[in-house]
Amino acid sequence: MKVVVAIDSFKGCLTSKEANQSAAEGIKSICPEAEVVQVPVSDGGEGFIEAFHAAIGGELIELTVHDPLMRPISARYLLKGKLAVIEIAQASGLTRLTQEERNPMAATSYGTGQLVADAIRKGAEHIIVGLGGSATSDAGIGMLQALIDSFAPKGEWDDIKELKHVRFTIASDVKNPLCGENGAARVFGPQKGATPDMIQQLDERARKFAEASAKHFGYDRSESQGAGAAGGLGYAFLQYMNADCESGIDLLLETTNFRNMVKDADLIITGEGTADRQTLMGKLPMGILQQSSYAPVCLIAGKIIDREELLKAGFAHLDEVNPKGITLEEAMRKEVAQQNISNTVRHLLAFP
């Protein structure tokens, strides 16, 4: 029996690797002879560079950069030959801030620009950027400023020569534009600590920046798919670096040759913290399902909503890992979550 396990991180609780290992232990306790293939996964947010590292190897480069409030921190990116993989959450992520520190009017993406600059200095010619989990809503202005500071001492973007031979790919499933009712500030600002007044100011700031940028370049990418990702960082990569935009999970699964990996699988187990109708809108488990036509795909999650819609989409089985009555605080404890995943998978295999 071959089981492929590809579970997303349970945010604030377990990494993808930890969730996979817990599921594998549950499988082995029921079927000791089973072949279990663990695939660390991420759609662009937390765990993105670790997932690529597991898939392609390379060196994890660690350096000191600035966090969203310009404090020095240690962050990493992956370098494999002339390919670099950057996870913006490493430098500019929401997890870098406490609840009280969240303020997208002040938060900057400068640290992400420092990661990009370092990768270019080390010879990267293709940079994949995972746009998930940002604390910022600065339309990438901070990131661009870091590149100017690194490569253009006179402070002019057009003086930067180092970017001319670098190809950028942004990994994002966000389709939102930069500005407006469906833009970065209005849709994603509240979770980053934005008040209604802040949202208005952030949206106006982004709109003015996009207008000035369009005038400078002669084209406008503010309405492009992915422009609203990561507080507008997607826009900065699209407008200033002519980046391509691809689905994060599709990029990763293509790199790992996932479709071929599951051809002879008897079962595929995927999962995430909360599964609902948003799962069907390009989130990681849906990417797994779409590339797994040879075996049933079971979806596990801490919480499952819209069960019928998920079943209609093609998931063979759905299971909540949290026992009834458990508090959120208890469920979020790492050792509890690990045991709950293991128990859920054990029950799944014992009673298919």
Set down the secondary structure blueprint.
Blueprint: E1 2-7, H1 16-30, E2 35-38, H2 48-56, E3 59-66, E4 72-80, E5 83-87, H3 89-92, H4 110-121, E6 126-130, H5 141-151, E7 167-171, H6 184-188, H7 196-217, H8 233-241, E8 244-246, H9 248-255, H10 258-261, E9 267-275, H11 284-290, E10 297-304, H12 307-313, E11 317-320, H13 328-331, H14 334-350
Parallel strand pairs: 1-2, 1-9, 5-6, 6-7, 7-8, 9-10, 10-11
Antiparallel strand pairs: 3-4, 4-5
What do these coordinates show?
The chain has 352 residues and is α/β, with parallel strands linked by helices. It folds into two domains: 2-39 and 257-350, Rossmann fold (3-Layer(aba) Sandwich); 48-249, Glycerate kinase, domain 2 (Alpha-Beta Complex), CATH 3.90.1510. Helix content is 38%, strand content 19%. It is built from 14 helices and eleven strands. It has helices spanning 16-30, 48-56, 89-92, 110-121, 141-151, 184-188, 196-217, 233-241, 248-255, 258-261, 284-290, 307-313, 328-331, 334-350, and strands at residues 2-7, 35-38, 59-66, 72-80, 83-87, 126-130, 167-171, 244-246, 267-275, 297-304, 317-320. The chain has a six-stranded mixed sheet, with helices on both faces. A five-stranded parallel sheet has the order 2-1-9-10-11, with helices on both faces. A hairpin with a 5-residue loop joins strand 3 (59-66) and strand 4. The protein is globular and about 65 Å long.
